## 1
Amino acid sequence: MAKGVVRAVDKMGRVVIPKEMRKQLQVENDVDSFEIFLENDAIIIKKYRPTCIFCDSLNESVKFGRHNVCVDCIAKLQNLKDEEIK
């Protein structure tokens, strides 16, 4: 069973994520972000990892507007385009 840590909420509504946990997740200050969402009566905080807008893959991707597209989906899109041209 996972062990938790109790942290107080300050006057601004902030909670500090313990250094040991940030280190374990390899979180870099001023670089990484967290995804925060509700699940039933719990607040879930996950290290944000951008995924492909089409297949939800974590593979290498490029930014397209505000979205990420993995190299596999880029290849599939290129193949679709090539097929339409024929």
Note: The first strand starts at residue 34 and ends at 39.
## 2
Amino acid sequence: MINAVADRIFIRLAPDTTATSGGIILVDDYHRTRNIGVVESIGDLVTSVKVGDKVLFHQFDELPTPDDDLVVVRENSILGVYEDE
């Protein structure tokens, strides 16, 4: 586990899908941008989300980490928080 600092947020990306919601199988070289995930760690200055929230974030603001399914964004990159479904 890594702890975020300041206004940074660590997000675990949603799994990459191999089929559309309609059941169409996607080819191997097709990669949809993953910009939905679950917050794993937040910095001291973050006030708009909490650990465990499912969020939508701006796809060009993410920074990669050694773990391909974990990214870092600043709080102002969060576009929305999903409500309980």
Note: The longest strand covers residues 36-42.
## 3
Amino acid sequence: MRIDFTPVVLPYFRKIALRVDSWKDNSHQIQNSLLVKHLKKAALTDVGQKFAFNDILASSDIYGAFKETLPTLHYEDIRRDVLKMIKGQQDLLWPGRCKDFAQSSGTSGGKSKYLPITPDSLSGNHYRGGEDAVAHYLNNYPKSKMFSGKGFILGGSFANTLGITDSDVHVGDLSATLINRITPLAELVRVPDRKTALLPDWNKKLPALVHKASQEYVTNISGVPSWFLTVLRKIIEYKKAKSLADVWPGLEVFFHGGISFEPYREEYLELTKGLDMHFVETYNASEGFFAVQNDPDDKSMLLIIDRDVFYEFIPIDDPNAEPIPIWEIKKGETYEMIITSSNGLWRYRLGDTVRIESINPVKIRIAGRTGAFINAFGEELMEDNAERGVAEACKKHGAHILNYTAAPVYAKGNSKGRHQWLIEWETPPDDIDAFTLTLDTELRKLNSDYDAKRNGNIFLAPPEIINARKGVFNEWLKLAGNHKLGGQRKVPRLSNNREMMEHLLEMNLK
């Protein structure tokens, strides 16, 4: 007989979910308290002394003094300090020694970033964010039997590309650190075991994952949608099953993040036929756990304002504008997000843009990356537009996409400019021309600037789709130094130049 512990833990998680009620009209106080907490904690660090945190704390307007004293920073501004931290220096960006670092990219440049994961950020943000995801899910579905089985967490591994000799220092995917540092008690409710989860060689890891996970009673899965598809299909094949319902009859929820779920939604619905399946989006980046979908009927996510992250925002229509705090943002506007957190990132520009869907509490949708857009002809096509347009076209034509990217083709001679899409299909549409027309139509519905430029084919010609051979995007990721199955590395969806596209097209011919 299977024991279900969900009723036992439900009151604890519901209490966590219901704390959101106290956020209404209280974001100013909560966020300001976090800022004060971080300034006090780091006052004696190198950054704290450089920018006189104690003087900021003595000001009658702490946020005002903070904003006037500290500049906003990109990764290159802190790279040198982070590399020193990796080598063992203490008290630079955050008190004490940091031994865990998330390797991240997400850009077309392929140059890795190494982001500190301090013990404070693990306990105060990353693990708490995961707890929030479970809490809101159980609050929405109190009859859940999630804790009658195990959670299958798909993660990456560590890499030693920096020549690290200190065995206490780990650099790799955020997910690897989360698995490695998790409390031993959690091992009782997750799969696979730590040793298997952290295997670096995917030729050994994938079959081990498939074997171990397929033997367990799994009720929930967590990971990046694109990578998880590969593993889930292998499990169905291994068990000679028709769908996941035959393998895990108790599977009920997928906590997903890292990339947009929309292009993959139909594929997951097909894989989970016969299950009462739910999908919960999370905004869990290497820099922090920021938001979670707390309403199944609303695709926006609740911004988590009390888990060690202080937020600021820059309007994307005026990148030279002064950043503003959470209590000054406006509904319907799109902003670049800036964070100050217990991982030692101070006024750090993530490069992510979010649209504010509601205030009190603040709910957001990820609009894309600040560098991930196409505006070669005044069309201002954003990543969010692309993801939603592709998802709708796939739905209408029964197609499934593994990966894609798009870039402008500039006008030359008598030819007009256009957008060129390179798409790797899992299931191609029967009629590629009809798919292209639907994609174009959906983008015009979603973006008025794109629609205006496409009007009458005067300024912008219809999009062009090129079929990518299987595996070309993974090959590109490997060459760019960004590839690690199960990790957070991802293909930029939109580029405003042709550098990446030309490289991919050349590879596509091989």
Note: Residues 123 and 327 are 26 Å apart (CA to CA).
